[in-house]
Write a structure and sequence with these properties.
By secondary structure, the protein is an all-alpha fold. It has one domain: Monooxygenase (Up-down Bundle), CATH 1.20.1280.170. The two termini are 26 Å apart. One of its GO terms (molecular function) is phosphatidylinositol-4,5-bisphosphate binding. Component of the exocyst complex. It comes from Trifolium subterraneum.
Length: 119
């Protein structure tokens, strides 16, 4: 839990959706662009660092990765769907989306390999 709180909860903070009804569409789009940019940067950094870590216990490693996947993928999917709607039904959304769902899953699966992979 401490590991998750110190690493991945920071990433999840960027995926929280604004529920401010008085926010103008362009303000919401800009907020989401900023959040996605921050997510991309932090996700890449965490994956680079933690792929160089090594967990000897294969069962523990799989448990940790599975818990992160269950936490992160649904939040990311929900954020991306909303992001695409906010940016006028996906217009130009792709230029801001650095990671597809399978990229996120692959990045998480590469954690704790004990190698120094680059993003």
């Amino acid at each position: 839990m401490n590991y998750q709180r110190n690493s991945w909860n920071k990433v999840l903070e960027f995926m929280k959706l604004d529920n401010n009804a008085s926010m103008q569409p362009n303000e919401e789009a800009n907020s989401m662009k900023d959040k996605l940019k921050s997510f991309n940067k932090l996700f890449g950094k965490i994956c680079r660092v933690q792929s160089s870590w090594f967990i000897v216990d294969k069962h523990l490693k799989r448990e940790i990765i599975t818990s992160i996947v269950k936490l992160l993928l649904p939040a990311y999917a929900k954020f991306i769907r909303r992001f695409q709607r906010v940016l006028q039904f996906g217009k130009n959304a792709d230029k801001y989306i650095k990671y597809e769902m399978e990229d996120i899953a692959t990045g998480l699966d590469d954690l704790f390999q004990g190698s120094s992979k680059s993003d």
